[in-house]
Amino acid sequence: GRLEAVTQQMGYHPQYLDSFLKMQHYLMHMDGPLPFDCRHYIAIMAAARHQCRYLVNLHVLQFLRAGGDPQWLRGLEFIPPKLRNLNEINKILAHRPWLITKEHIEKLLKISEWSWSLAELVHAVVLLAHCHALASFVFGCGCEQDEGLGGRGSLKALSLGNQCFCEATAGNSCSQELLRINRKRSLDSCMELDSLRERMQRIHVETEGREEMRLLQQDREEGEGQRAEVGVQGGAEHHSDPFAGLSLLADPDGEVTGATNLACYMQDPDFGYQDFARRDEDQTQVFRVQDYSWEDHGFSLVNRLYSDIGHLLDEKFRMVDGLQSSAMAKRQGCEPSVFKRGIWNYIHCMFGIRYDDYDYAEVNQLLERMLKVYIKTVTCYPEKTNSEMFDRFWKQFKHSEKVHVNLLILEARMQAELLYALQAITQYMI
Predict the structure, then answer these.
(1) Element spanning 391, H or E
(2) By CB atoms within 10 Å of each CB, which of 31, 151, 213, 389 scores lowest?
(3) Do 400 and 80 meet the contact criterion of CB atoms below 8 Å apart?
(4) Taxonomically, which superkingdom (predicted)?
(5) Are 54 and 131 in contact (CB under 8 A)?
(6) Is the pLDDT of residue 337 over 70?
């Protein structure tokens, strides 16, 4: 069978891939508070918030394999109220996690016969954050668009033999073979990059001119009314989103494919990301890592309520931080750790998370404007990303370096959602 598109992309960084697969397998297939069919349905709900067919279809298959009720796949109206009650926190976590409060947690834990236990809720929160962040990676690396070439919407096209990619753990032959292949090949091969560009060009050759005209028209109409990036201290920028108006998904014939078939898995579909408001008169909104951090607070809480998941998450966070990015940093004239921290803190800044010991003026110095726009799009509304954007940003960078940026987005976003949710749970417990 062919390699999964996600693991194929992550395979450019085999050590990270190994830690990702271990965590994913534990989350979806090992002992835990939630039934297996519910885990996959929660993943469907999470992926639907970003209109990610790739993940929705994959987890539909896994839901059915786990013995899930096919009636549930008709939409939220056909699932138990307990699962349906998760919709609100799913919506907020996906788009504006800073709005989560202890009242949201209390509501879920105290609804008579449909109440959640703390352990179940922590499991669900990790699932939601994981799938939201993975949707960013799927769109950011073009996996959603690539799957469309094989017949978008086809469940068969998204399967890996009889196996979901999250089952390809470090201990089995699939993962070992994947790692062997990725170590053997030249990860930064120019042929690989040329092939990627040719594939993207085929997809967009008939629609590129039309899209560019629509893009220019959009810019003229919106002018200064739309911001494409969050302002940072030391030099906030205001401009229109240069990618606004590009098709979400385009078939080879140029027809834009909507995501109406995913609407049954979510409520309030118009609820989306809004720029985090940083107002001097309302500093209480800002999430200060010095007051609640993953290392000092989140890790111990999640590990206590959902055994061992904290260790697996922590390993994944540390692994992405340890990935080498010397080439990217060298082009920017800085140390790799400085460059990676700039990306990480910029992503957290968009969700209202601030580090008192960081000079945010560095973000504008380290990150080119187009890269910042790309990062914000993939992080905050990944469904607006398309393969052309992946090809256009930082053309001088290798494919593996672009994947590295998307891994940083995945992990920084996931940690941001977890920090808000776990802080709200902590406040409820206190």
Answers:
(1) helix 387-392
(2) 31
(3) no
(4) Eukaryota
(5) no
(6) yes
Which of 38, 52, 166, 174 is flagged as catalytic? Answer: 52
CA 350 to chain centre: 14
Residue 354's CB: how many other CB atoms inside 10 A?
18
Averaged pLDDT for residues 383-398: 75
Q: Which domain holds residue 101?
A: 1-144+275-429
Amino acid at 240: S
Q: Dmax of the chain from CA atoms? A: 59
Distance, in Å, from the CA atom of 138 to the CA atom of 144, rounded to the nearest integer, reads 6
Residue 52 annotated in active site = yes
Query: CB-based contacts of 393: which residues, under 8 Å, 6+ apart?
Result: 370, 371, 373, 374, 402
Phi, psi of 282 (to 5 degrees): -135, 60
Mean pLDDT of 38-53: 96
Residue 256 lies in a domain: no
Tell whether 323 is covered by a domain.
Answer: yes
Q: Say how many domains are in the chain.
A: 1
Full-prediction pTM beyond 0.85?
no
3-state SS class at 159: coil
Query: Tens digit of pLDDT for each residue in 107-119?
Result: 999 877 789 999 9
Report if residue 154 sits inside a domain: no
d(CA 79, CA 74): 9
- Identify which has the larger pLDDT, 106 or 240: 106
Buried b (16+ CB within 10 A) or exposed e, 36-74: bbbbbbbbbbbbbbbbbbbbbbbbbbbbbebebeeebbe
The beta strands (E) that lie in 246-405 are given as 287-288, 353-354
Q: With contact defined as beta carbons under 8 Å apart, do 390 and 409 qualify?
A: no
